[in-house]
Write a structure and sequence with these properties.
This protein is of the alpha+beta class and about 375 residues long. The protein has 14 helices and nine strands. Helices cover about 45% and strands about 15% of the residues.
Length: about 375
């Protein structure tokens, strides 16, 4: 082979390899939805829910509620003018929720969306609590009334969990006062303890990070969390649930690279969880902890879920970021399950004072918007 023909062959091989590489990258970008966050059947519920009619329309709003790990652990029964809410026990997070605290809080979030939408459509909505699985956890009876829309009901289709870095709030005091005004008889004894001072926030942030490290160090919790990680487009569209790269709060370039690179391992996901928690907790200008009197009471857990969904919708209506931060309570429940003394319970009780913690969250000015999370539509959750 002459030098000229060798160079020509080498150049052709390099060009061919580049074309193939570009093609593989382009295919993976297409296959993992790099350029299409929030699209496809897994996200249709966010756009289609206003078109639903009758009591089923209330279910279509309920499924857009927040839930632990986006498990969507709910089922609904519609009979005449009554909507029953059931727990789907096949959708727990295992070692992360051994006492079903977060499952019941998630059902409370869905219940709040349902009631707000019923009122907006001109119904009064009477809520009664059931005995729990396998029976309904709650029933909503609908009666003719006056349509009462609100900024909360109008925010249902726009609510997102925002996991980005937060900037300071324009006015922390005004935010706390406005959110406190959302606590009424329908959710009491659930209420909010606010952590706004610098020392309180630092102590709580440290607890969050330490609890996250304990979480990833617990093999069962790590595995049960990773089971809800949807790392590719096909998985997202098939399951219509779980956690995704798009919702992780990453900068756009990192988010795109995460989709192009091979699927994340559990170890990599755990490391990212810790790193993101450091950023999220360290940048939070305000933490809130929902507390109640009896954390084992089903009705109080549901009330706590209704309250936290209400707070989340208020934040959405005011273009603020809101993120559930439940690593500490998950570790408390896990140690209770295992019969161990929990190192986070005492410090948390010192911070929140009277009342038993149910759930925690952070509020702030987000640095980036969040796309919608995958969602099962109403037709897939009707009994």
């Amino acid at each position: 082979m002459t030098r000229r023909s060798f160079l020509r062959t080498a150049a052709l091989s390099a060009a061919t390899a580049a074309v193939l590489a570009d093609g593989l990258v382009a295919y993976r970008a297409y296959d993992n939805g790099v350029m299409a966050p929030g699209r496809g059947p897994a996200f249709a519920a966010w756009h289609d829910w206003p078109a639903a009619e009758g009591p089923t329309s209330l279910v279509a709003a309920a499924v857009l509620a927040a839930s632990a790990h986006n498990t969507q652990p709910w089922l609904f029964g519609v009979t005449g003018e009554t909507v029953d809410v059931y727990a789907d026990l096949d959708r727990t997070t295992g070692a992360n929720d051994p006492l079903l605290r977060e499952l019941h809080l998630s059902l409370g979030c869905a219940l709040e969306n349902l009631v707000l939408t019923a009122r907006a459509q001109g119904h009064t909505a009477d809520v009664t609590f059931g005995a729990g699985p396998p029976a309904a956890v709650a029933s909503v009876s609908l009666h003719p009334g006056r349509a009462t829309t609100s900024s909360l009901s109008e925010a249902i289709g726009h609510r997102r969990s925002n996991r980005s870095r937060f900037r300071p709030l324009p006015d922390v005091t005004a935010t706390v006062e406005a959110m406190d005004s959302l606590v009424d008889a329908s959710v009491r004894p659930a209420r909010v303890v606010w952590l706004s001072r610098g020392d309180e926030r630092r102590r709580f942030a440290d607890l969050l990070v330490d609890a996250t490290r304990a979480h990833v160090g617990d093999d069962a919790q790590s595995q049960d969390s990773f089971a809800w990680w949807r790392s590719n487009w096909d998985s997202i569209q098939r399951h219509k649930d779980g956690l995704t790269i798009d919702g992780a709060g990453l900068p756009p370039v990192k988010r795109a690279l995460g989709k192009l690179l091979p699927a994340s391992t559990r170890a990599a996901a755990d490391a990212a969880f810790v790193d993101q928690t450091v950023v999220q907790a360290g940048s939070a200008p305000l933490f809130g902890v929902v507390v109640t009197d009896d954390p084992s009471s089903l009705s109080e857990r549901l009330a706590g879920g209704r309250l936290i969904q209400r707070l989340h919708l208020w934040a959405t209506a005011h273009e603020l970021g809101f993120q559930h931060m439940n690593q500490i309570t998950e570790r408390i429940d896990r140690d209770q399950q295992l019969g161990r003394t929990n190192p986070f319970l005492g410090p948390l009780e010192e911070l929140v004072g009277p009342g038993v913690p149910l759930a925690a969250f952070r509020v702030g000015t987000p640095t980036r918007t969040s796309p919608p999370s995958p969602r099962r539509p109403a037709r897939e959750v009707l009994r």
